[in-house]
Predict the structure.
Amino acid sequence: MYLRSIRTRLTIWYTSLLTVSLVILGGTAYGLMSYSLSHEMDNALHSVAGALIEQDPGRSTALLPSEIEQAFRRFFGFSPWDQYFQMRDPSGNRDERRSSPSNRKLPLSRNALQNALRGLPYFETVEGIGEYPVRVLTMPVVQSNRVVNMIQVGMSLQNIDETRFRFLLIMAGVFPLGLILAASGGWLLAHRALKPVNRMSAAARRISAEDLSQRVNETGTGDELDNLAKTLNRMLDRLDVAFSQVRRFSADASHELQTPLTILKGEMELALRSERTPEEYRATLESALEEVDRIAHLVEGLLLLARAEAGVLRMDRREVDLLQMLEEVYLRLRPLADSHCVELRLGSMEPLRIQGDGERLQAMIFNLVDNAIKYTGAKGRVTLELRREREYASILVSDTGIGIPIEEQGNIFQAFYRASEARGLSERGTGLGLPIAQSIASAHGGNISVESAPGQGSSFKAMLPITS
Ligand code: ADP
């Protein structure tokens, strides 16, 4: 028996509580029984004495033993236990003629005599007369306000003692039996009640990081254990999603790194295969540098995302002129827009300043505008706006480009996610731009949201708190 198991502890608690209850209950029952037996005995003695007094006064002859026995029998029934009867005069002398045989003498205590002389009955328990203690009633016989006699009746307490002993004997037998039955019942009940828990932990043991598809059995009863199973399953759902995101992230990251590395390796092997002219070497090196730049860019992005996720992304807190920043991005990307035959224009602009990291914010805006140009075909238009919305500076980058299907809009902020149509375009994207932009916005206490309709265009809105 494993002491730390809930089952064992429950059984021990249950049995201990039951023992305490049984002892209290048994003790109370024993006390009540003793009290009521003594009470009944006193009542009966009082009735016997009363009956004998009624017969005795005014009689010249003594009470016959049969008459006494009859009086006892009336109130005690056929009792084989020792009975005592005796008459005393007011000075306390025993009247031998009207008393039980001399081997059944009852003593007269001081209290009994004093009470009797005052006309009061007196009960006492006397030991040493027979084998068992005797309950004795001393009652005065009063005539014309005078105590003329004292009558003493006594009854052995053997009956009461034997009844008490039998009661104790029964309890001594029944209690342990009851306790054993209750403990085994408790043990079985606890086993039954805890069975689902055991099943749950067995199921939980089977679930590993490699296979998070398994679930704990839900009984559907709506009880505490069913709720526990449901909670565990919801937790497993979340873990499953988180683990697959991590797995996908690592797979995507390795894939994205592998492509430029393969190109790099191929170009170098080709260059080494035969003697080249210095121009050819230069061209190879330039192309290699491009790939190295791409790898460095990717690693930098991954590092930034990892830091943001771990909450250790360091941000400068300086005053940033957003209007100036947007104009700079506009000027830097105008040539790209021109080369794509996309009209890039500045819409309504409010002069707004916020506290933040200028470099990172510029990278964020740059990415949104760069995307807008990338995903807008020739003759399209990209508009930049800067407005104040309550306590926020709102940067709006809207385009008339390919748009994003509604079911994909929720995913574009995940690392490496690229919408299906965007993949079709020749542009080489990494899928890290938007997640990085979102991390930068949230590190400033803001966020980026999107509204888009496929074929009509998209509108990205970055909201940044204005801390004045
Ligand atoms: P990348 O542009 O390198 O693919 P991003 O994280 O910047 O990565 O963007 C993720 C995806 O979001 C893009 O692949 C594209 O599908 C979609 N997207 C972003 N901006 C736009 C836009 N302005 N119009 C249409 N789709 C866009």
Observations:
- The mean pLDDT is 88.
- The chain has three domains: 2-163, 224-310, 318-465.
- DSSP finds eleven helices and twelve strands in the chain.
- The CA atoms of residues 107 and 126 lie 8 Å apart.
